[in-house]
């Protein structure tokens, strides 16, 4: 079975196709050339022989007419010339009168017999007939015996001279030429096969080098890049492969970092709970107030752990269903009112003024669950990372094609060097404050994923110590099919716009 598979793979390989092409390239022209040469020789030989015989026949026809041979067929001179023509060209000559009687037959087989054929009949109308029979190897000519009438200036057809000549000698030459051509063709075929094998091995060698290099790289991510510069094509393949390898390295590093961050974030609340529990266990007569305080802290850590897990699950679900949106037409005004109603207790607790301003009714095709999650995270971040007595303004507007959601706050702001990192998972601008507010570092990562799915734009303006403005632009009608986030980031998605802009 394995041997059969190897045979199939060989027939599908580039090497086999190159060998086949080169063999055909070497053999087929030889075959065509051989056939062409033999055919050309045959046509040329027949043409020359026909011209020679026709010339001699015309001269002899004039002599037959001038000597009145048809009435006096015993002319020694004419008979001798007829026999000579027959012998020289290894053929047969017949002289036929206007009654279709054979006056003279150089073979002495049909003398005084009647002959009626298409060629003879046509010759009685003054036509010279030339016919070549390749199968039987002969040339047949008919020459009219014409007498000019001096009194009237007209011509009179007295008879026909029929000449049949063998072409065996030409065919012998053709066979000799064909044999030599076959030998030459065989030599060319052997040379073509040999060269085809050698050339195919050389031409395919760069691809084997690439395959070997890739096998070496598969064992791990080394520092060496793939480099096979034999052909332009291999250079391009190597370039694309190295780009892919670079992306894989980045993804691998990102995955390792993500796992490390997840481990750290999940471990921190557990460590805190363990410390609190151990502290309680080490106290023999701890007051009830201390128990309550420690149990409250443990409860807070459990809530924090739960939030981290829920956010991670949200991200995982969105990663798995990259283009899986449950799109419905939603009233965005009502959706925002519900979100702000849920977040208002948090804002009051933080002493932050939360305001919604809608300029016009807006309805759009969105995934209610995902877009709610994104809007909630964005507004909640603006509340949590704000100043006591600060404000958060949520503004909704629209035109004929897009709706615009703007979230402005009077918060702590984002440093310029952190703007490009804020969407990374577990990235925090202020780690200490993030822990105080219960942040997981996943909120903006969730926002980014949701906006990817909706082919939206997110623009950010921020000034440290003065606040931030997040502006979302989303199409009201989802006309285009869902696009993978990788395509949106690379800018290769047709008709797409940048998803994130700072």
3D architecture notes:
There is one protein chain. By secondary structure, this protein is an alpha+beta fold. It folds into three domains: 14-173, Beta-Lactamase (2-Layer Sandwich); 246-320, Helix Hairpins (Orthogonal Bundle); 324-501, 2-Layer Sandwich (Heat Shock Protein 90). The protein has twelve helices and 13 strands. The strands form three sheets. Strands 7-9-10-12-11-13 form a six-stranded mixed β-sheet, covered by helices on one side. A five-stranded antiparallel β-sheet has the order 2-1-5-4-3. A hairpin with a 3-residue loop joins strand 9 and strand 10 (402-409). Helix 2 (14-66) runs antiparallel to helix 3. The longest helix is centred in the first third of the chain and has 53 residues, at 14-66. The two termini are 60 Å apart.
């Amino acid at each position: 079975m394995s041997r059969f598979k190897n045979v199939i793979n060989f027939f599908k390989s580039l090497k086999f196709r190159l060998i086949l092409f080169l063999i055909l390239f070497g053999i087929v022209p030889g075959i065509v050339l051989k056939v062409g040469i033999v055919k050309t020789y045959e046509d040329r030989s027949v043409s020359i022989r026909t011209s020679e015989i026709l010339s001699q026949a015309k001269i002899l026809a004039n002599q037959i007419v001038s000597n009145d041979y048809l009435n006096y067929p015993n002319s020694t001179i004419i008979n001798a010339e007829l026999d000579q023509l027959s012998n020289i060209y290894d053929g047969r000559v017949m002289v036929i009168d206007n009654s279709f009687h054979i006056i003279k037959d150089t073979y002495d087989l049909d003398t005084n017999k009647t002959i009626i054929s298409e060629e003879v009949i046509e010759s009685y109308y003054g036509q010279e007939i030339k016919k070549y029979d390749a199968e039987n190897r002969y040339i047949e000519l008919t020459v009219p015996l014409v007498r000019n009438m001096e009194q009237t200036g007209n011509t009179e057809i007295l008879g026909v001279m029929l000449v049949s000549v063998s072409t065996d000698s030409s065919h012998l030459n053709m066979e000799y030429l064909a044999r030599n051509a076959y030998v030459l063709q065989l030599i060319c075929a052997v040379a073509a096969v040999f060269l085809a094998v050698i050339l195919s091995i050389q031409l395919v060698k760069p691809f084997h080098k690439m395959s070997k290099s890739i096998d070496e790289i598969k064992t791990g991510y080394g520092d060496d890049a793939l480099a096979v510069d034999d052909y332009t094509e291999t250079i391009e393949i190597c370039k694309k492969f190295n780009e892919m390898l670079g992306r894989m390295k980045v993804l691998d590093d990102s995955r390792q970092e993500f796992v490390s961050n997840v481990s750290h974030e999940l471990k921190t609340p557990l460590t805190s709970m363990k410390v609190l529990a151990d502290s309680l266990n080490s106290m023999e007569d701890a007051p009830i107030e201390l128990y309550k305080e420690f149990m409250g802290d443990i409860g807070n850590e459990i809530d924090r752990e739960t939030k981290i897990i829920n956010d991670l699950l949200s991200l995982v679900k969105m990663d798995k269903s990259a283009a899986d949106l449950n799109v419905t037409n939603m009233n965005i005004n009502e959706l925002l009112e519900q979100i702000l109603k849920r977040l208002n207790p948090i804002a009051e607790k933080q002493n932050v003024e939360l305001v919604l301003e809608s300029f016009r009714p807006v309805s759009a095709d969105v995934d209610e669950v995902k877009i709610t999650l994104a809007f909630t995270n964005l507004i909640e971040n603006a509340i949590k990372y704000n100043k006591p007595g600060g404000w958060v303004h949520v503004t909704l507007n629209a035109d004929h094609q897009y709706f615009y959601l703007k979230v402005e706050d009077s918060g702590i702001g984002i440093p310029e060097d952190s703007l490009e990192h804020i969407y990374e998972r577990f990235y925090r601008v202020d780690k200490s404050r993030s822990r105080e507010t219960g942040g997981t570092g996943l909120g903006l990562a969730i926002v980014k994923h949701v906006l990817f799915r909706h082919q939206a734009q997110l623009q950010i303006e921020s000034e440290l110590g003065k606040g931030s403005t997040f502006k979302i632009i989303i199409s009201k009608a989802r006309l285009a099919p869902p696009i993978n986030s990788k395509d949106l980031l690379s800018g290769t998605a047709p008709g797409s716009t940048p998803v994130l802009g700072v």
